[in-house]
């Protein structure tokens, strides 16, 4: 059975006909030709299909497209500026070589943007000792929060450095804006 | 036309040695890089791609009685169902792994027995579920254990000898004052690259174009062409981006044949096939389990007098793969009396193949844990024991070493790691609820150079150069380092190089495997660049070009060319749960000159992470009733996640190896995984006093 839905993908409104069995990931990749999110397992076990769905990181292989009519989807492709300028997280991944084959990378990048936002909002994680305190941008917090995104090339050291650098830059920027 | 063979001379490093940013990094961090089923391929009349879905066998051995496609064909969107009765015939069926859909034989569970083509992936998948395959089971054997009957293969993977014998090791072992005699095991391990094997195929009636996820476009063309009854040139294989491979995409596997056959049934219409994560565990190769019996006979001062490494692995009855796990024992340590043997059990199981450092990885786990046991028996520090057994020449060939610097790797690593502060005995350190220990292991990997590589250099406008070779970048950084090599060989900045690669229409490039890519392609690029300068001078007119084949530069005949390294590990084992954590992991390597420190570091760290993953988690469980891999996804076949990797570092010695390549480099893709699991196992022994001789090091081993 088919259904028509409308998504805003990386700032563009797109109307698409999907099978009711179509996942959000397949709607993006196979129906809309948006292949920035990758399919690594199709079972929510690897994180390669991560996008920001209405602002929060989400596994698109575990979402049915018809359940997200009207949603706003930001892929790694939509994080860069309209002039192609890289998002600070992407720039940090590049500098710290936080990718090798590149297949998990768009998911890692989206997840990292989500992680930094979650830390900023004060969400606790499994390794947060005090659930009421503001979580810090520590190695342990970043590793734990990024663990839903597997990287078989083993680029974890570069990814950690990249996420921390981007988080610290954003923190400094917020501090400067707060002081101004 | 055959290109002239040119043997290059060493080049001066300018860009080589600098951390040029990954050339395809922007495409990767934005997701714009297009992988095998992401190319917007359409037919000549704009036909959209069909989606293929594989139907696989459920018995371990037997035959297909009938394939009933009635229900599948009735499902909306399903176009056709291809099985052994209606598939195009192959011209060559000698490779039984690849010769699918040609007869009714079933040789293992998970073998391709039908392919469904449909307009969407949803209908293809549902169609595959609706295909009824009646199978007749025959008696089978899928269990690999001590009782499995074995045979001696003619040779082992990589072309090495099956057995070697020097002196009289059995007699020397019998009279040795200190001995180690133990059996070490490694489980079935699965490469599990993040991009599942996938391809988009288009047959236009004359030419097959395959966007493939492969480590070798030219090898795929060379295999598929003759199988399909085509001239090699009628097959074009493109692989601009490959989402990891680790050996599993080194050789073509059955899905590539399936998508090619499917495409040939629908001329002019592209066909996309993405193998599911689950299907990969039967169809795309894996590292066979190994069992290594290692014996050392040593003097009380630690010098090894005799060693035996007898290893057994298993393969599929339809195709031999003999994991060369005893081969590294031939080069590691001096011993006048030595023997190595390989035996293989044939089973009705999926076909094993290459996985990162085949042979070295499982073999060095056994060898280097055995060395730790010998250190204990002789009362020597494990670093010192290895230093005392350093051979002056290659024990295997008698050739002088090209550049063996294992002792420096051990010493440099020991200093960086703080090895000297380590308590001598095991079970000496407790931190809260954790036993804490440290371990070391050596690593090695041979310098491999592939013959036959050809490169083309062409001058372009504005002082730029086009450099072409059918190499692939599977995440190694090849696109970046080959640019640097070409720049230095032509004495121009890397920005002046337009590198064209990953297309089988380009001059021959060998497989990205065996840590041979940069060595082999790079040597060919240097040869072509130097010949280009000889032909056209320093100020060539735009449009002139030179194509040259690489002569054998590497001095392999008179020298033993190998890389070496040392891995140091701190392990913590929970006193009450047995959980193992690795807070520190360090590798120090001698790998020749490093072409790009940024990408090289990623390669070495990636190897260390995969070794850590093998040490702690990876374990392919086989159901003895069917040979089915039960752990066929990433929730049950555990690989290291971010939280498993703590402080990890890789260093290398300042090195130049102009015996191996004109760049002074050697390969680095595999050595990082070698020895790593042994270092972790040795650290858990030091922490707990519990010796674990089989991977992975799961918690149950350490429970009291």
TrEMBL record, chain A:
This is 2Fe-2S iron-sulfur cluster-binding protein. InterPro entries: 2Fe-2S-bd, 2Fe-2S-bd_dom_sf, 2Fe-2S_ferredoxin-like_sf, 2Fe-2S_ferredoxin-type, 2Fe2S_fd_BS, Aldehyde_Oxdr_Iron-Sulfur, Beta-grasp_dom_sf. The lineage of its organism: Bacteria, Bacillati, Actinomycetota, Actinomycetes, Propionibacteriales. Residues 3-79 form the 2Fe-2S ferredoxin-type domain. PANTHER family: ALDEHYDE OXIDOREDUCTASE IRON-SULFUR-BINDING SUBUNIT PAOA, OXIDOREDUCTASE, IRON-SULPHUR BINDING SUBUNIT-RELATED-RELATED. Pfam families: Fer2 (PF00111), Fer2_2 (PF01799). Keywords: Iron, Metal-binding, Oxidoreductase. It comes from the Bacteria. Gene3D superfamilies: 3.10.20.30, [2Fe-2S]-binding domain.
UniProtKB/TrEMBL annotation, chain B:
It comes from Nocardioides oceani. Residues 30-139 form the Aldehyde oxidase/xanthine dehydrogenase a/b hammerhead domain. This is Xanthine dehydrogenase family protein molybdopterin-binding subunit. Residues 139-168 are annotated as: Disordered. Keywords: Molybdenum, Oxidoreductase. PANTHER family: ALDEHYDE OXIDASE 1-RELATED, XANTHINE DEHYDROGENASE. InterPro entries: Ald_Oxase/Xan_DH_a/b, Ald_Oxase/Xan_DH_a/b_sf, Ald_Oxase/xanthine_DH-like, AldOxase/xan_DH_MoCoBD1, AldOxase/xan_DH_MoCoBD2, AldOxase/xan_DH_Mopterin-bd_sf. It comes from the Bacteria. The keyword Heme does not apply. Pfam families: Ald_Xan_dh_C, MoCoBD_1, MoCoBD_2.
């Amino acid at each position: 059975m088919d259904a028509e839905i409308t998504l805003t993908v990386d700032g563009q409104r797109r109307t698409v006909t999907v099978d009711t069995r179509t996942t959000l990931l397949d709607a993006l990749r196979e129906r809309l030709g948006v292949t920035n999110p990758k399919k690594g397992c199709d079972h929510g076990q690897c994180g390669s299909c991560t996008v920001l769905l209405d602002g929060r990181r989400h596994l698109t292989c575990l979402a049915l497209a018809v359940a997200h009519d009207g949603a706003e989807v930001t892929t790694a492709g939509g994080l860069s500026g309209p002039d192609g300028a890289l998002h600070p997280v992407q720039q940090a991944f590049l500098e710290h070589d936080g990718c090798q084959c590149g297949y998990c990378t768009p998911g890692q990048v989206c997840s990292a943007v989500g992680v930094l936002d979650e830390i900023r909002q004060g969400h606790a994680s499994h390794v947060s000792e005090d659930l009421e305190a503001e979580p810090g941008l520590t190695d342990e917090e970043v590793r734990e929060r990024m663990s839903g995104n597997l990287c078989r090339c083993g680029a974890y050291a570069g990814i950690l450095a990249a996420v921390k650098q981007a988080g610290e830059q954003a923190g400094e920027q917020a501090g400067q804006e707060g002081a101004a | 036309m055959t290109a002239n063979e040119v043997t290059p001379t060493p080049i001066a490093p300018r860009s080589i040695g600098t951390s040029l940013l990954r050339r395809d990094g922007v495409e990767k961090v934005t997701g714009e890089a297009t992988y095998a089923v992401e190319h917007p391929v359409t037919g000549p009349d704009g036909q959209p791609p069909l989606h293929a879905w594989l139907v696989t066998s459920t018995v371990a051995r037997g035959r297909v009685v009938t394939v009933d496609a009635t229900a599948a064909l009735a499902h909306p969107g399903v176009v056709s169902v291809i099985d052994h009765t209606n598939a195009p015939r192959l011209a060559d069926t000698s490779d039984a792994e690849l010769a699918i859909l040609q007869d009714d034989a079933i040789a293992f569970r998970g073998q391709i027995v039908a392919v469904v083509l449909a307009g969407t992936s949803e209908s293809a998948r549902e169609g595959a579920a609706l295909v009824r395959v009646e199978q007749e089971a025959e008696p089978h054997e899928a269990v690999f254990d001590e009782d499995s009957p074995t045979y001696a293969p003619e040779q082992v993977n990589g072309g090495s000898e099956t057995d070697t014998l020097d002196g009289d090791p059995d007699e020397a072992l019998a009279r040795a004052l200190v001995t180690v005699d133990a059996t070490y095991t490694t489980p079935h391990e699965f490469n599990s690259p993040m991009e599942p094997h996938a391809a988009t195929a288009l047959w236009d009636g004359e030419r097959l174009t395959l966007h493939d996820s492969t480590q070798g476009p030219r090898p795929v063309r060379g295999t598929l062409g003759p199988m399909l009854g085509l001239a090699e040139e009628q097959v074009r294989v493109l692989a601009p981006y490959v989402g990891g491979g680790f050996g599993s995409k080194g050789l073509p596997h059955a899905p590539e044949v399936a998508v090619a056959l499917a495409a040939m049934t629908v001329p002019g219409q592209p066909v996309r096939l993405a193998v599911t994560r689950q299907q990969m565990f039967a169809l795309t190769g894996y590292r066979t389990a190994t069992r290594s019996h290692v014996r050392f006979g040593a003097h009380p001062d630690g010098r090894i007098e005799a060693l035996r490494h007898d290893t057994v692995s298993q393969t599929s009855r339809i195709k031999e793969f003999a994991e060369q796990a005893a081969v590294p024992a031939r080069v590691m340590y001096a011993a006048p009396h030595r023997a190595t043997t390989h035996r293989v059990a044939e089973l009705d199981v999926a076909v094993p193949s290459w996985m990162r450092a085949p042979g070295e990885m499982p073999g060095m786990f056994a060898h280097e844990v055995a060395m730790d046991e010998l250190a204990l028996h002789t009362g020597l520090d494990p670093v010192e024991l290895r230093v005392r057994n350093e051979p002056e020449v290659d024990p295997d060939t008698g050739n002088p070493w090209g550049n063996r610097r294992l002792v420096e790797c051990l010493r440099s690593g020991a200093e960086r790691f703080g090895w000297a502060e380590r308590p001598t005995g095991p079970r000496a350190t407790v931190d809260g609820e954790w036993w804490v220990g440290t371990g070391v292991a050596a690593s090695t990997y041979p310098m491999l150079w592939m013959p036959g590589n050809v490169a083309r250099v062409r001058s372009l406008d504005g002082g730029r150069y086009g450099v072409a070779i059918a190499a692939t970048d599977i995440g190694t950084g090849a696109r970046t380092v080959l640019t640097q090599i070409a720049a230095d060989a032509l004495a121009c900045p890397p920005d002046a190089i337009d590198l064209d690669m990953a297309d089988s229409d380009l001059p021959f490039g060998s497989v990205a495997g065996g840590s041979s890519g940069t060595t082999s392609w790079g040597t060919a690029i240097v040869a072509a660049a130097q010949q280009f300068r000889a032909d056209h001078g320093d100020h060539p007119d735009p449009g002139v070009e030179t194509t040259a084949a690489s002569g054998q530069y590497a001095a392999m005949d008179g020298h033993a060319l190998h890389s070496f390294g040392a891995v140091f590990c701190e392990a913590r084992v929970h006193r009450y749960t047995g959980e193992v954590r690795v807070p520190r992991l360090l590798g120090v390597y001698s790998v020749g000159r490093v072409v790009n420190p940024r990408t090289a570091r990623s390669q070495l760290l990636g190897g260390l992470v995969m070794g850590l993953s093998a040490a702690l988690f990876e374990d392919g469980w086989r159901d003895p009733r069917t040979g089915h891999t039960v752990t066929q996804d990433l929730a049950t076949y555990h690989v290291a996640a971010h939280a498993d990797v703590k402080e990890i570092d890789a260093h290398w010695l300042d090195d130049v190896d102009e015996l191996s390549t004109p760049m002074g480099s050697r390969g680095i893709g595999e050595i990082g995984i070698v020895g790593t699991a042994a270092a972790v196992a040795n650290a858990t022994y030091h922490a707990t006093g519990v010796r674990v001789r089989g991977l992975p090091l799961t918690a149950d081993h350490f429970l009291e």
